[in-house]
Amino acid sequence: MSKQFAVIGNPIEQSRSPELHHAFAAKTGIDLNYSKRLAPLDGFEANIQEFFAHGGIGMNVTVPFKEQAFAQCQVLSERAKIAKAVNTLWMKNGILHGDNTDGQGLVDAIRALNWPLENTNILIIGAGGATRGVIYPLAQAGAKKIVIANRTLARAEQLVADLQDAVAQLELQAISLEHLAGEFDLVINATSASLSGDALLLPEALQFNYAYEMAYGKPSSFLDQAKARAVPTSEGFGMLVGQALESFSIWNGIKPDLKDFL
C-alpha cells in the first residue's frame, strides 16, 4: 500500500508538488502517492481532517491556507512559530504537527548555487509572508545583517519588531523602497512584482553581488536589471524544490540531494 500524501490549496492546478515528490520517491525507492486537493475557501479544516482520517501521512499547504494551517496545529516547529504560517502537516499519535520549510528551501537553493550566506549582508525586497518565512532560516545559515525594504515602511518596521527577538544574533533593519541604496552581498525579491508584471526599479546607488527571485517561470524585471549589471542571478525554482525536499525529509526520514533535481 502506497503512503498517501497531498498538496492542498485554492487554486491548485498549477502546483508542481506531485511531480517533485514522485521524483524524490523514485530516487529513494519509497512507495508513495502524492495528489492535489482543491479545497473550497471555507472548507480547509474539513478537508485536512478527512485526509488524515483516511490514513494520509503528510500534506503540503499552499495559498491561501498557510495561516489557517498554522492555527490548526497543536505542535509547531520553531520556524513555523516565527513564520506564523505552515506549509507542511503531519499527524502523529492523533496530534497535528506543522512546520514551515519555505525558508530552508531558499537556504538550500542558495547553497546549491554555491553563493555565500555566512557573514553576509542581505537585502530582501517586500515585507509579506514570504519574507517573514525566510528570515529565521537565513539567520541560522549565518547571515550577519538583513535589511527589509518595502513600499509601505510601517509594514517592514512591524516585521522587524516581530522578528527581532527570534533572531537576536542578526542585525535587522527596515527601509522604504525609495531609500534603496548601499552595498549588499545578496538581494532577494520577495514581492509579487514579477507575477503582476510591475516594474521594480533598482537604483544605481544599490550595489549587490547576487540576485535571487523567489518567483519562477515568469518574466522578471528584477532579474533583467541584475543581468544587465552582469550579476549572477537565479529564479525561485530551486527554492520550490528545496522546500519540497525538506517536507519529504520530515515525512520519510531521508533527504535526497537538491542538485539532482535542478
UniProtKB/TrEMBL annotation:
Domain SDH C-terminal residues, every copy: 236-259
Residue runs in coiled coils: 146-180
Domain called Quinate/shikimate 5-dehydrogenase/glutamyl-tRNA reductase: residue spans: 117-194
Binding annotation for NADP(+): E78, G126, A127, G128, G129, A130, N150, R151, T152, L153, A154, R155, G236
Pfam family, one: Shikimate_DH
Record carries keyword Transmembrane: no
Gene3D superfamilies the UniProt entry points to: Leucine Dehydrogenase, chain A, domain 1, NAD(P)-binding Rossmann-like Domain
Active-site positions on this chain: K66 (proton acceptor)
Catalytic activity: shikimate + NADP(+) = 3-dehydroshikimate + NADPH + H(+)
CDD domains: NAD_bind_Shikimate_DH (cd01065)
Key words, A-Z: Amino-acid biosynthesis, Aromatic amino acid biosynthesis, Coiled coil, NADP, Oxidoreductase
Pathway: Metabolic intermediate biosynthesis; chorismate biosynthesis; chorismate from D-erythrose 4-phosphate and phosphoenolpyruvate: step 4/7
Source domain of life: Bacteria
Shikimate dehydrogenase substrate binding N-terminal domain sequence ranges: 7-89
Record-listed shikimate binding positions: S15, R16, S17, T62, N87, D102, Y212, Q243
Listed GO CC annotations: cytosol
UniProt-listed InterPro entries: Aminoacid_DH-like_N_sf, NAD(P)-bd_dom_sf, SDH_C, Shikimate_DH, Shikimate_DH-bd_N, Shikimate_DH_fam, Shikm_DH/Glu-tRNA_Rdtase
GO molecular function: NADP binding; shikimate 3-dehydrogenase (NADP+) activity
GO BP annotation list: amino acid biosynthetic process; aromatic amino acid family biosynthetic process; chorismate biosynthetic process; shikimate metabolic process
Catalytic activity, EC: 1.1.1.25
Oligomeric form and interacting partners: Homodimer.
Function: Involved in the biosynthesis of the chorismate, which leads to the biosynthesis of aromatic amino acids. Catalyzes the reversible NADPH linked reduction of 3-dehydroshikimate (DHSA) to yield shikimate (SA).
Family (UniProt): Belongs to the shikimate dehydrogenase family.
Protein name (database record): Shikimate dehydrogenase (NADP(+))
Biological classification of the source: Bacteria, Pseudomonadati, Pseudomonadota, Gammaproteobacteria, Moraxellales
